[in-house]
Amino acid sequence: MIAFHQVTKSFPINGSMLPIVKVKHWTVEAGERVALIGPSGSGKSTLLHLASGVLPVDSGEITVADHPIHRYSEGQRDRYRAQMIGYIFQDFHLISSLSARQNVELVLPPAWTKQQRREEVDRWFELVGLQDRQKHLPAQLSRGQQQRVAMIRALIGNAPLILADEPTGSLDWETAGEVMSLLLSLCESEKRTLLTVTHDLHLARLFPKTVHISELNELVRKTNEAESSADSKGERVG
Ligand SMILES: Nc1ncnc2c1ncn2[C@@H]1O[C@H](COP(=O)(O)OP(=O)(O)OP(=O)(O)O)[C@@H](O)[C@H]1O
């Protein structure tokens, strides 16, 4: 589903380019549900942005399904994202003046018939247990309920790849567990590939597969090796 090959990405920081991502080879198979864990600032969100085509690579190749997105123009990456990616954010990104149902209706494929739109929206609100909350504004919903609406929005258009960046990061631990379990079971039953960034090791354990970013990103590995060697000498790096 996702294949990274010799991918690098740097950002301009204090006037020079600082390398953030250097991934030799990484694949996620279709239908896998993977938690990506690792320290703050290690490039996890950047990896998601590269996979979603929000950011272009500096060098290397990223192929998602049949899309060689490293070769795509910005416009092609926008179309790829609309067709292939459902994105879930930590802070939901719902429009506050629209009801839960209207927030979902905004993203429905234009080709769907009126009946298909009605039936699919009803089905998804039922799947996440919010059938009686469709007319509520986001502010009238709990944070866990808001994230369920955001999950519908990511999943309803049949995007095969769901990318989630700390999707439970602003929820209390009990709600976080419920929401993450729901996301996992929906992706399994709807046959989507799921890649989730999380800081929370307890939540990562819910996933069939967990990847630490140091297994992927050479730059993180070098930093960790430097830190552990410094630690063994009783020093700290950086
Ligand atoms: N657009 C950008 N311009 C400059 N630097 C950036 C940009 N995006 C990310 N960075 C830097 O790249 C590094 C990795 O950021 P990233 O958000 O990918 O890390 P992360 O592992 O997701 O961190 P966290 O867990 O704290 O969200 C950080 O040092 C960050 O400041």
TrEMBL record:
Gene Ontology cellular-component annotations: plasma membrane
Domain ABC transporter: 2-237
SMART domains in the record: AAA
A Pfam family this chain is assigned to: ABC_tran
Xref: Gene3D superfamilies: P-loop containing nucleotide triphosphate hydrolases (3.40.50.300)
GO MF entry, a single one: ATP binding
Sorted UniProt keywords: ATP-binding, Nucleotide-binding, Transport
InterPro entries: AAA+_ATPase (IPR003593), ABC_transporter-like_ATP-bd (IPR003439), ABC_transpr_LolD-like (IPR015854), MacB-like_ATP-bd (IPR017911), P-loop_NTPase (IPR027417)
Family matches, as PANTHER family: IMPORT ATP-BINDING PROTEIN (PTHR24220), TRANSPORTER, PUTATIVE-RELATED (PTHR24220:SF659)
The protein's name: ABC transporter ATP-binding protein
Organism the protein comes from: Brevibacillus fluminis
